[in-house]
Amino acid sequence: MKITRRQLRKIILEELNRTLGEGKCDKESGHKGCIEQDSKGKWRVISNKTGKYWPQTYDSKKDAEEGLDAYHA
Predict the structure, then answer these.
(1) I need a labelling partner for 27 at 20 to 30 A (CA). Which of 2, 16, 45, 60 fits?
(2) What residues make up the domain containing 18?
(3) pTM of the predicted model over 0.70
(4) What pLDDT score does 23 carry?
(5) Which residue from 25, 13, 17, 22 is spatially nearest to 53, judged by alpha carbons?
């Protein structure tokens, strides 16, 4: 059986997620990302994979939650 580089990467990432935890955000948030307010008062989504902010900013927490929900739809 031959495994492609992409398949091998997927296997490794799945194992790392299983071993180290699923992401940067806690599971209690109900999302696959975190939402927080930045120093300028804008709401931002933090990627659960990278731990970095999404480039988008939102005026309210609700808008950020809706953006995150739309991403995962």
Answers:
(1) 60
(2) 5-71
(3) no
(4) 59
(5) 25
